[in-house]
Amino acid sequence: MEPSPLLMKLIFSFLLWLSFVPHFFVTRVHLCDETAKYDIMVKGVEISPSPIVRGHPTNMTLNLIIGKPIIAGKMVVDILYFGWHVYSDSYDICVETSCPYTSGDFALAPFQTPLAFFVPGSYHMQITIIDGHDNKLTCFGFDYELVIASLFGHS
């Protein structure tokens, strides 16, 4: 017995929809220098919630692959709004979580930025991780949206 044409169309539509779904939920990450040989590779960035809602808690988790152990270092965060630099801060990665970090897969603990004070719109975040000897271990950036709570039904 052959499947009906309607069933085949439904299956095809569902498979087509599945092929596009991951693109809507993945934060695209770009290296600062595509030719650089960084000791830390970036697997991805998880932003929750996405889009970011102004005035509500937001977590960003960095999924990384560490090439060699890290015993000290800092993470520098720069935020740009339509190309204008609006925020910069640095975090001691050994205070946020315990050092040393061994080589292999690693998720840098969720961190928060003061997004409650920013206006809604499109932002770009650049993250640079530097070891204790000021060697750049990685540098990457990604875009995200900041929205007003009432537009998405949040209170």
Automatic annotation (TrEMBL):
Alphabetical keyword list: Lipid transport, Signal, Transport
Keyword Transport in annotation: yes
Gene Ontology terms, MF aspect: sterol binding
GO BP annotation list: sterol transport
Residues in the signal sequence: 1-31
Family classification: Belongs to the NPC2 family.
Function (record text): Catalyzes the intermembrane transfer of phosphatidylglycerol and phosphatidylinositol.
Name under which the protein is recorded: Uncharacterized protein LOC111498769 isoform X2
Source organism (scientific name): Cucurbita maxima (Pumpkin)
Lineage, opening ranks: Eukaryota, Viridiplantae, Streptophyta, Embryophyta, Tracheophyta
